[in-house]
Amino acid sequence: MDHFLYRDGMLHAEDVPLSEIAAEVGTPCYVYSTATLTRHFRLFDEALSGMDHLVCYAMKAASNQAILKLMASLGAGMDVVSGGEYARAIAAGVPGDKIVFSGVGKTREEMTAALKGGVRQFNLESEPEMEALNEVALSLGVVAPVTVRVNPDVDAKTHAKIATGKSENKFGIPISRAPEVYGRIAQMKGLKAVGIDVHIGSQLTDLEPYRQAFTKVKELTQVLRDQGHDIIRLDLGGGLGIPYDRGNSAPPLPVEYGALVREVLGDTGCEIEIEPGRLIAGNAGIMLSKVIYVKEGEGRNFLILDGAMNDLIRPAMYEAHHDIVPLVEPAPGAEQSPYDIVGPVCETGDTFAKGRNMPVLKADDLVAFRSAGAYGAVMASEYNTRPLIPEVLVHGDQFAVIRSRPSYEEIINRDTLPGWM
Length: 421
Ligand SMILES: *Cc1c(COP(=O)(O)O)cnc(C)c1O
Description:
The protein is of the alpha/beta class and 421 residues long. 29% of the residues lie in helices and 25% in strands. The longest helix is centred in the middle third of the chain and has 19 residues, at 208-226.
């Protein structure tokens, strides 16, 4: 459920008509709902109630400072995957002991920053990384709390570009090698293993792969404990999917996911960490865009929007579907027409949808891309020197620009000329 609904014939974000935001901020832009973000965080938090747990928001999904501050105010921890994200989390006031550091290629600089600033744990992804962290920790005279991300070799049944839990993926250490790897960690004075980490992919729409992965993690917990390792924490990653296409059956709910966690892992006595990103932010954001032209092609009509693949890359990158709806509510039974919906960027891949049935639209009409809150703004680029589009946060009947559109001058001034020119 989200808070983008038609009211009096106009799509609203909570109590704000989106036409008002389009007029004031301009298009394209992203708009997020505080109420939806809050609701989704709480769904996870409540789904794990009764178990010692921490919901670490996977901030790579949407990492604006305002969103992070909101999450932090709700009690969220953060899952970060780079030094930049770590700095963002700290800047938003997240305490270091609630920050989990994930990612396959952490550098020594990133490790140093996190050890100095405070970190809950590093989720290690390889043995060379383990050795590097050990050295960094020893040089700082500290002990780094770690888990090892195990690759359980289960099929998450999601898009190939976001599946991470098969043995052919670059992520984690094969689960069969874990006992040996934890044995090595026990020999390293700069590291202390506190738990196990697993994250099998994103946009999962079925709980079965989770059940398989969690079951393997549970077995491993016992094996490691029998070897004398003090496993007190299980980080289960994120990945629960959202209904991008309202015509399809809905993916499992956080409460069902939570029930599975309790069923499989409830008796381990471990603290549970989860790292949801998409489910918290995805349906809490939309991208607003305007029709520039309606172009009649041969056998098809194109809706040319002011939003493009550089603003929202998911359709080009993952063949992702986004519902695209007009801001003005169509009358019941209104005439529909199939459109190829495209942006102005000079790439054929700059196509959001093909043959999509839409109410008849004309130049200057406004549309909203639903479910664009996660992996939207954060993946945007300035390709074609199109400025990064603004982000807006709505709260009840108020809204605020939380990242403004840079001017062309600001963009150009980021370049510097070499001395010989
Ligand atoms: C991307 C990622 C997440 C979040 O995945 P969602 O599908 O957005 O929930 C969590 N943990 C790790 C390690 C990730 O890489």
